Structures are given as structure tokens and as C-alpha cells.
Amino acid sequence: MNTVFQKYTLFPHLNVYDNIAFGLKLKKMPKQDMKKKVEAALKMVGMTDYEYRDVDSLSGGQQQRVAIARAIVNEPEVLLLDKLLAALDLKMRKDMQMELKEMHKSLGITFVYVTHDQEEALTLSDIIVVMSEGRIQQIGTPVDIYNEPINSFVADFIGESNILNGVMIRDKQVKFCDTVFECVDEGFGENTPVDVVIRPEDLYIFTPSEAAQLTGVVQSSIFKGVHYEMTILCNGYEFLVQDYHQFQVGETVGLLVKPFDIHIMKKERMYNTFEGKIVDENHVEFLGINFECLPGHQLPAGAVVKVEVDFDGIILQDNEEDGTLTGEVKFILYKGDHYHLTVLSDWDENVYVDTHDVWDDGDRVGITIPPDKIRIVL
């Protein structure tokens, strides 16, 4: 097993040849065999005439190639690559992606490639493992991950998505944006809350007509080179649309989505659930804090309970001191007409919040839960 690090970690006191040959020298390989292997590795990374160059004189892309050559010359069964192309400019990154695919094909070994670039993951991978905070969210082919995301994190992380709250009316029929749509999904039950995912390229946009399922107004229109990216406001919900034709800001348009382009996901949770303990008739302890609650539960002090709080029942404050407890915004998901936030409380437990306010990832916030928003369940 060999590793190519994000920061290359080339030896500055050695030239290109000696950097690549370092592992072979540790194995005490004969010089003639070593020379053949180093030359073959240099040829594979397109650095044939650079063996005696000082590594400090090389560009970032060239140093990257040397680091790869140093790893593959040892003929590992597994090659670990850590955010390999993050430091390169866009064009060089695209070129190196294609070269890595060719290397992978010619070497015939397993690459384990870590990246935060979703497009890079889709381009390079046979299998993608999407992780969040050390936990695997989904494993699948690039096509599966993109077209059939298992939860809202994956849908939001891999590519652009419109993610909305919806209700599965019955099999093959879902309601969102105050409109009922035909879909192909089954097995979610009847009148079940779900998450709806529609990719921006799967929304058809045109001049309003009877064919339109939704009618809205263009809020923004940006040229992206291959297509235009437009935001459309329909019934109070924002949709991101990508299309080859441009519609101007303020223009009224129709939208249509085909049944097989609507992806339905089970909701991961319907509300916040915490382990709690009754303090007295007016207080319950959870998240390490005594919260005031409404009287009437008739439970004895010390009783272990489940505490439920709706996502929109939690208030966030700019000033941490104004909250009953504090936390940090860790994940932001836009759901068409509001934001769904994951806030990690200082007691290392996630609090999920629906809000119309705009927050940034990493913001420190105060967290307040009004007494009438707390439900106590044995």
C-alpha cells in the first residue's frame, strides 16, 4: 500500500529521480532494475525528461506527478490518494483527472481516492462512498448515487438538487409545492411526509401553456457556459433550473417535470427527539439543561422521558448568551421556502432547526426552546 498526500511531501534535498527511487532503495533493489522501474514510472506520469531536475524548480502539477510516480513505482496493490488535485487550477485538475483514469486502467490496482469535489468523485470513481462526520451515508456507483440518493445529505452533496418537503398521497402520486404530481415511487404508504428531490436539469422550462404543472417568475438568470442557471419562484417555493435557453429576470414561465425525474426519499426524522428526565412539574432536563415546560404531564421527578420538539419550534439567536444553550451550525439544507439546519449543541448532540433566517456553516448560535414547543412522552 502506498499513499500520495495532499501536500505531496517530496524530499526537497533529493532530485526527481531520487525521490521516485526512494522506496526502491529501501528495498535494496539492484540499480539496473531500479533505473528501469523509475523510467517506467516517469513515462507513465509524462515526466520522462525530468529525472535530474530539482523538485523545488517544478510547478505544482509536476510535483504532483512526481509524488504519484514515487507511489506507483513500488507496485502497490492499493494506492491511497488524499485530496490529490485540490491545489491545482481548474484546467490542470481536469487534465489530471483524465490521466489518473488512464493510470488506473493501465496499472490495474485499486485506487482509494479522498475528495470533497463532487464532480471529481463522479468522474473518477467506479464506486463512491459518501461520508458525513465519519459515518457512511451511501455506497454505490456514480449513477446510483446521483440518480437515487438515499437521504437529503447525499442529494445535496452530490450535484445540485431541488429538495422539498412533500406528502406521498398514495403509490405513484406525491404532493409538493401545493400541487399533486405523478411519480414512479411506491411503498411509502398514504399521506406520508417525504422528501422530494428534483435535479435542476430535469425541470423543463418554457413560455406558460396548458402543459405547465407549475407557473412562476424568474428571480435570477446566470450564464454558466454550457447552460443557463435560473431560479424560479412558484407558489412561494424556489426552484433551481438549468436549461440551454435563457429566460429573463421577471419573466413568467411554466415548469414541467416527468414522473421518472421525481425522486422520493423517506424522511430521516419528523421532529427532534431527545432523552430527558423530569425535574418537577414545570421543568424537564435534556441536552444537559433544565428547560421550562408546560405543566400537566403528571409525571414524578426523576421519570425518564422522551422529549419531542418540532423543527420550527426552536429559535436560534446571533448572540450565544441569549440562548438557553449554545451550538454550532454544521449543515445547511435549503428546502425551497426555508432552511433546514443541523446544529451541533455543546453537549455533542444534534439539534435540527427549520428557519427562514440565513446562517453560515460554522456560525456559533444561541438555542432557545419555548415551553409550549416541548412535548413530553413516557
Describe the model.
- This protein is α+β, with helices and mostly antiparallel strands.
- Strand 6 and strand 7 form a beta hairpin.
- The model has no long low-confidence stretch (mean pLDDT 92).
The unreliable regions are none
Q: For the terminal residues, how far apart are their CA atoms?
A: 52 Å
Rg calc: 27 Å
Number of strands: 25
* Structural class by helix and strand composition: alpha+beta
Spatial order of the strands forming the largest sheet? 8-7-6-9-15
What is the helical fraction, as a range of percent?
10-25%
Please tell me what the overall shape is: globular
Instruction: Give the number of helices.
Output: 7
Biggest beta sheet attributes: 5 strands, antiparallel
Strand content: 35-45%
The average pLDDT score comes to: 92
Précis, in short:
With 378 residues, the chain is of the alpha+beta class. The chain is built from 7 helices and 25 strands. The protein has helices at 16-26, 31-44, 60-72, 90-107, 118-124, 142-147, 152-157, and strands spanning 2-4, 78-82, 110-114, 128-132, 135-140, 162-170, 173-176, 179-182, 192-198, 204-206, 214-223, 228-234, 237-243, 252-256, 263-266, 272-280, 283-286, 289-292, 304-309, 315-317, 325-334, 339-345, 350-355, 364-368, 375-377.
